[in-house]
Write a structure and sequence with these properties.
Helix content: 55-70%
Number of helices: 8
Structural class: mainly alpha
Largest sheet: none
Order of helices and strands: HHHHHHHH
Shape: flat
Number of strands: 0
Strand content: under 5%
Radius of gyration: 21 Å
């Protein structure tokens, strides 16, 4: 795992230093809290979009929220070199080839938006709420999520390539991992790792 911009901001915030640290929680507690937060936020924003007259605004916020979640996962588990290559690939998209790349991505996003629209229509049909077409708002939500994730990924890759930045450094003592693999392959017990 790698240190990300999220970690740097959390380390520099005086308010966040007073709160219980995420790293102090057990992995099961962290997974439970994160999963519940993602599910509840998605349900809250999705139901707000479905059962009120405001369809676009909650889905835009949902797109940004999910984009941040995806970028957090990508920046933490992908090496800075891979992040740099991904953003370099995106920098190689020109006005000459964007139409073909955008068209194929747009087809996939439209198909996903149609699926979500059908699912929402089937749920709404069982309630007294008036039916609505969510194809355009859901498409916009997905695009916002993708763009948000890519911008954060590009920013993280930029800071990971700076000499003075701690972004992109490995978290934890991962230098012992090759010794463990070698000893396990040789049939010997793995050496004890310090905590």
């Amino acid at each position: 795992m790698y240190k990300t911009l999220f970690d740097v901001f959390a380390d520099q915030s005086h308010f966040l230093k007073r709160l219980p640290r995420w790293s102090d929680l057990q992995p099961r507690q962290r997974a439970l809290i994160a999963a519940l937060a993602i599910i509840l936020t998605t349900l809250l924003l999705g139901s707000t979009a479905a059962f009120t007259q405001f369809h676009r605004t909650p889905l835009l916020v949902l797109g940004m929220f999910l984009g941040v979640i995806v970028s957090r996962v990508l920046t933490q588990f992908l090496a800075p070199k891979i992040q740099s290559l991904a953003t370099g690939f995106l920098g190689g998209i020109t006005t000459g080839n964007i139409a073909s790349k955008e068209a194929s991505l747009s087809k996939g996003i439209s198909a996903l938006a149609d699926l979500v629209n059908k699912l929402a229509a089937s749920i709404i049909s069982k309630t007294q709420a008036p039916p609505a077409d969510f194809t355009q708002p859901v498409t916009l939500c997905i695009w916002i999520g993708i763009v948000t994730a890519l911008v954060i990924l590009a920013t993280n890759a930029y800071y990971a390539n700076q000499e003075s930045s701690t972004v992109g450094e490995r978290v934890g003592n991962l230098a012992l991992a090759p010794a463990n693999v070698t000893s396990i392959a040789a049939g010997q017990p793995a050496p004890a790792q310090p905590n």
